[in-house]
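tmp note - Nucleoside diphosphate kinase
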Amino acid sequence: GNRTFTMIKPDAVEKGHIGAILDQINASGFRIVAMKLTQMTTADAETFYAVHKERPFFGELVEFMTRGPIVAAILEKENAVEDFRTLIGATNPEDAAEGTIRKKYASSVGENAVHGSDSDENAAIEGAFHFAGREMF
Ligand code: ATP
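out:
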């Protein structure tokens, strides 16, 4: 697969890290196929994270992801899903490798700066959730 879906989450947008994160994404060889500043509604976040609905942190996750704007984007590169997850680092920034986006910009396991799709199938679903065909380049 050659595409993945990402969000720069509300914590990183609030702290002014959009530019630095996009620079690192571009410098790592990803092409931006689609991108926008948007805010998820509660219904959007509950749908997007439905796989986590039984987890104890689900309510907190929905609150967090809806509290302000995010940058949603589709990225293209050979081996995009796996390479992007390497670039962002572990879910918990304490476990994330040096130099990864989460190591540099995440505050906690919940407020962890960026999302990256975990499979080609989910990348396609998540990209289609946020973008119409005419918004993809
Ligand atoms: P993402 O799907 O955002 O790329 P991930 O695949 O690294 O993250 P998941 O385990 O799928 O992590 O969890 C999805 C999101 O839920 C995390 O990115 C984080 O924002 C939140 N989350 C995960 N674990 C916790 C936790 N223990 N406490 C609070 N929030 C959490």
